[in-house]
TrEMBL record:
It comes from Methanobrevibacter curvatus. One of its GO terms (cellular component) is DNA polymerase complex. Its EC number is 2.7.7.7, 3.1.11.1. This is DNA polymerase II small subunit. Coiled coil: none annotated. Pfam families: DNA_pol_E_B, tRNA_anti-codon. Belongs to the DNA polymerase delta/II small subunit family.
Length: 563
């Protein structure tokens, strides 16, 4: 019985995805056919040859009956493929002669369907419960988990939470199964080996070419030296930043006669013991098993609706593509396979985000910007689930983690039945595939503060954030962090997909089985970007097409494959 039910659901979904609605009596008759799926495929071709609208079309029982009679008569000598070919030829004939019997029947019902056709322009019709086919789940959303008062004690709790979470991950590494507290290291005999876990309080290069690091835990501070003679460890350490949590293996040396920070003489005591690091371990990423994807996902961010540099024509072309209206047949097939659209922040351009922004705004009201976004997204077929997170241009608080965009500003978007709002960051599940959504402000700090990192190669930064298992490890830099009781930016659960935006530059890397994607923008270069030498990737949309990464350029309609 469950098998038959699945087949019936398949018929309904196939019709709904193609914008066709039929009555219960017609559906009962279709179910009795020997090959109902074949009839539905033929019906779709017939209806689409008559109705050019991409939206929902209601077909009356009388028309279905005539198609059923025709199908039964021709079933013995025709396949769905030959019927389709005949219908294409018939369509050409119909365009020349509008007086065929079928066309008369359909024209007869056009007036009766007038109200329905007007309904097409309203946002997001419910297509016979199509939403039910989504296996979508929000795993982590911090929107209702903010308990901070912004007091000093909250910052202490934040860093304590970070240390505890990342220590737990680090202790799973074989080299750190047994570790000592820093106070225990100071108490042990000199020149003994040690292993410990700590947060980097300070790190800098000495005038002699060594790297000096202060490591702390809840019991004390340990001075750690990375020798310039260990070239591999020096290179690795250049990626380390303040406030990240690492494991350190090494040996306690003799008490230094000089303060390693400034070279001044200092009396020997246990708390100033200088350790020599032999290995530094980040939480890191274990290999993720590849999961089968029998659906496709589209990734967007930084659409910037409301800006006069928003490329609306390309965005509309993108929407048409999702709806199956595209000149290239290969692209069209991919578009119709899209089941989820992820938007990781900055769907609108916002108000007062940077100096003189008002001079570059086409829509100067934040609510009207979201209304325009709703107008555009409402045109996307309801067979696509749209998940929206906030960015620094959105009407959410600036400090991370950001709650979802408030309904008071984006009411028109909240009214769309296939739209879900989540926080920044958020962890969601699409058919069992875990997606970590993060707008990406933490990328700024890494690009500016770490040797070898840049906005242009943001995939390298995303890889490093995954290794640190934190989305914005540097505190007090460009990324504002809320003084939460819990650090929600720690990457506890490894995702299958890591999606960011913010920098307006596309990138892709598969790192240990994780698809890492940055999705560029739908905004041409702004004056602000010109002054910072940022050359955006405009209207080039990343797609995971059943597990394979591709990009489609909606400025030039070109597809690019990446491995």
């Amino acid at each position: 019985m469950l098998k038959n039910l699945d087949k019936m659901n398949e018929l309904l979904i196939k019709l709904a995805e193609n914008g066709i609605n039929i009555g219960p009596e017609s559906f009962k008759k279709i179910k009795t056919l020997k090959n109902p799926l074949e009839f539905v495929s033929t019906l779709i071709i017939k209806i689409k040859s008559q109705f050019k609208s991409k939206e929902l079309v209601v077909i009356k029982d009388e028309i279905i009956n005539s198609y059923l009679e025709e199908f039964k008569n021709s079933a013995s000598e025709n396949t769905a493929e030959t019927i389709a070919k005949k219908e294409i030829n018939k369509t050409e004939e119909i365009n020349k002669n509008k007086e065929t019997d079928e066309n008369k029947e359909i024209n007869k019902n056009k007036d009766e369907n007038k109200e329905l056709n007007e309904e097409i322009n309203k946002p997001n019709r419910n297509q016979d419960g199509v939403e039910g086919k989504f296996n979508f789940e929000i795993l982590i959303d911090t929107s209702k988990k903010s308990y901070t008062k912004g007091e000093l004690v909250d910052f202490v709790s934040l860093f304590k939470s970070r240390f505890e979470k990342l220590s737990k991950i680090l202790k799973k590494r074989s080299q750190l199964k047994v570790v000592k507290k820093i106070s225990e290291i100071h108490a042990q005999d000199k020149q003994n080996d040690f292993s410990t876990i700590g947060m980097i309080k300070e790190i800098k290069k000495t005038k002699n070419g060594h790297i000096f690091m202060e490591l702390e835990d809840e019991t004390g501070v340990l001075n750690v030296l990375i020798s310039k003679d260990d070239a591999e460890l020096i290179k690795f350490s250049e990626k380390l930043v303040k406030d990240e949590v690492v494991g350190v293996l090494g040996k306690i040396g003799k008490n230094s006669k000089k303060d390693p920070k400034n070279g001044s003489k200092k009396e020997s005591n246990k708390s100033n013991s200088l350790s020599i690091a032999s290995e530094i371990i980040q939480p890191g990423v274990t290999r993720i098993d590849k999961k089968k994807m029998d659906f496709s996902v589209c990734f967007c961010s930084d659409i910037h609706i409301g800006s006069n540099t928003f490329v609306e024509e390309s965005f509309v072309k993108f929407i048409d593509w999702i709806n199956g209206d595209f000149e290239n047949e290969e692209f069209k097939a991919i578009g119709m396979d899209i089941k989820y659209l992820i938007i990781s922040g900055d769907i609108v351009d916002g108000i007062g985000i940077y100096p003189n922004q008002d001079k570059e705004l086409k829509i100067k009201d934040i609510t009207k910007q979201y209304d325009k976004a709703a107008e555009l997204l409402s045109k996307i077929r309801t067979g696509v689930k749209i998940i929206i997170g906030p960015g620094n241009h959105d009407a959410s608080r600036v400090a991370e983690p950001q709650p979802a965009v408030p309904k008071e500003y984006a009411k028109s978007l909240y009214e769309l039945k296939n739209v879900e709002f989540v926080s920044n960051p958020a962890l969601i599940s699409l058919e069992g595939i875990k997606v970590l959504m993060y707008h990406g402000r933490g990328i700024d700090d890494m690009a500016l503060g770490v040797k070898g990192m840049s906005m242009e190669e943001n995939d390298k930064i995303m890889k490093e954030l995954m290794n640190k298992r934190h989305l914005a490890p540097l505190y007090g830099e460009r990324t504002p962090l809320a003084a939460e009781l819990e650090d929600h930016l720690v990457i506890d659960d490894l995702p299958d997909i890591f999606h960011t935006g913010h920098v307006h530059i596309n990138s892709y890397k598969n790192y240990n089985g994780i698809h890492m994607i940055n999705s560029g923008t739908f905004q041409t270069q702004t004056e602000f970007q010109k002054t910072h030498n940022i050359n955006p990737t405009v209207a080039v949309v990343p797609i995971l097409h059943r597990g394979k990464f591709i990009e489609i350029n909606f400025l030039s309609s070109q597809k690019k494959n990446r491995k």
